[in-house]
Amino acid sequence: MTTDAGAPSYQDGNALAGPLSELFTVDLTTALTRCTGCGAAGPLAGLRVYAHAPGLVGRCPGCGQVVLRLVRGPRAAWLDLRGTVALRIPLGS
Amino acid sequence: MARAAVPGRLGERLRWRVATVLERRRETAAAVSIALDVPGWPGHLAGQHVDVRLTAEDGYSTQRSYSLTSAADGSRIELTVQSVADGEVSPYLAGQVAVGDLLELRGPVGGWFVWRPEQDTPVLLVAGGSGVAPLMAMIRARRAAGGRSPFRLIYSVRTPEDRWYLGELRRGDPGLDTTFLYTRSAPDGWPRPPGRIGAADLRTWGWPPDFFPECYVCGPTGFVESVADQLVTLGHDAARIRTERFGPTGG
Amino acid sequence: MTVISPGFRGRPRTSGHRLPPGQYETRDFPVLSAGPTPRVAREDWEFTVTTETGDRYRWTWGDLLSLPAERFTVDLHCVTRWSKFGTSWEGVSLDVLLGTVQSASDYALVSAYGGYTTNLPLADLLNGQAWIAHRYEGADLPAEHGGPARLLVPHLYLWKSAKWVRGIELTARSEPGFWESVGYHDYGDPWREQRYQGD
Q1: Which residue from C minimizes the CA distance to B96?
Q2: Mapping DSSP to helix (H, G, I), strand (E, B) and coil, where does residue B203 land?
Q3: Would you say the pTM of this structure is higher than 0.80?
Q4: How far C61 CA sits from the closest chain A CA (Å)?
């Protein structure tokens, strides 16, 4: 992988796929989220994820509000979803 | 339609699997492709990735995420690892891992940045540097499925020595057009002067917006931002542009 | 079953007396961020202290620079396991800023430009343990490391040392900040390895 010095230091919500797969049986990166700040809707994969931090921080690509935070400790994980109105989770057909 | 990519019971998806190194292939001075045998591998879609975990003799353990580069093929998968200066995991995988060694990995994960063989629309792939990895999986999956949807690959690299999968891309596939762009130095006689990818490159070597192509853009964050913006400016539907950014990973 | 990779060592892990448990030494200065880097012009910068009664104390950039500054050299310990030794800074001690503040509070909630917050006991900001730092290694503090000014509380894990610091709210009870509300420790002593709640 590549380090892009000087560029914005975030990744796509795709980076959430591995960590979230530890907690959920469905792939949540395709789930639709609606931002509680600006109302914009989109897949979790479209969030801006700041991963170079003590946890993962997913921000709305429209308004920058924190939509999701995930911290993985050795014995527990903490998931905060207060920035999303709801998640629409597609189920396999 | 978005849906769970490869459904599986939690216990299965959570599990770290033991993989055996089958083959190493050098792509460039710094990049090596590694083929692995993973017993019980559930299959994957082009564009998905895996987490690889390394553990030292004193118990210290760390993991990194790598795109799968191969089409689904039983228990065999492939990754390509670029050795990052000062990196922790990538120099070990690219430099020291030998055929027969064991590694731990889990996956596949990620159901958004994927291409499925049943998609029949034209596809534009835009790669910056090592961002070509998941796009190569799409090219290989199309080949494995005998796919007919037309593909175009625009692959931006610094110099000709930085191209991955060169022999395979030169051999080509029916219905796949590949264009190399160079940002630092181009081969002798190359018509396009070295420089960053621009709207003219995307217009000349990509698809017109009224073909409604699916666009997959992968590379460093700045590259992806710039290409996605240019595609929208050219008239492509933002909903048909899927991106994967490589942020700082610590190698 | 865990697979050991022969010859894989990972980052160097020394056992020096300056290294808290579970940390490794780094010589560069990693930039961690939970969001975009705020760009705050010095003419717009202000720092406020708000008490439990609603009293507000406010300093402009000019006010901050007019206060006596200290130069100090400290070790930094980040909860993501890197430690950096011997970093030198210049800034104003919080003893100077909080010295005249009337308050009966025991806790502090620190806020930053960009929305970040972190909490700690007020006592840990006093007695020569914390600064509003505005110069690093002899130069103005770069934005990616928290400039124009950041809090520095080097005896706690570095997430307590809020970059782009904007104010401190003094509270009677401990209120969890940005990372403390998702599992990180309320105190965060690196020598007792207080990374997560319950550690």
Answers
A1: C7
A2: helix
A3: no
A4: 27
